[in-house]
Write a structure and sequence with these properties.
The chain has helices at residues 10-33, 48-61, 68-94, 99-104, 116-124, 127-130, 134-151. It is mostly helical.
Length: 153
């Protein structure tokens, strides 16, 4: 019988997220090189390379002491995040001022009186003119997600 999981420091949790985050980064690079992958059905149909990736991802999560089922759930969630970031990055590359900008143009009319939280968040963000490095943003977000998921029992 196993007892409760030992308490982990923030540093240990961050360290445990490094390898899975690196794998997620490589998966995003593959999606960016081969955009057609984003259009494949989402139901599991794993080929030999997919099996290699899944095995490596499970191995990267071994130090977490999470149950195997939770590890699979985390891999699925991170894969969804990879797909989202890859799709968004490809859309931005292809249409810098296109439909996406039109869909968010209403944010320009945000006022502190009516939407103070949105106004504050937009004021604190680098904005599109700063063109934040998408890889840096991706890596930071994946590590935050993984650290949070690894911390949960």
């Amino acid at each position: 019988m196993t007892g409760p999981a030992p308490e982990r420091s923030r540093e240990q949790l961050t360290t445990a997220a490094i390898e899975p985050a690196a794998l997620a980064g490589r998966a995003k690079e593959v999606h960016l090189r081969h955009p057609w992958l984003l259009d494949l059905p989402t139901e599991p149909a794993v080929g030999p390379r997919g099996m290699d990736y899944l095995e490596r991802a499970l191995r990267a999560l071994e130090p977490t002491s999470l149950p195997e089922a939770s590890r699979l759930e985390i891999i699925g969630l991170v894969n969804g995040l990879v797909t989202l970031f890859a799709r968004t990055e490809l859309q931005r590359r292809n249409t810098p001022d296109g439909p996406g900008r039109a869909r968010t143009s209403h944010l320009d009319t945000t006022t502190e009186e009516r939407h103070p939280l949105i106004a504050a968040a937009l004021a604190a963000s680098p904005g599109t003119e700063a063109s934040q490095d998408t890889h840096v943003l991706f890596e930071r977000m994946v590590r935050r997600v993984l650290t949070g998921l690894i911390e949960l029992p």
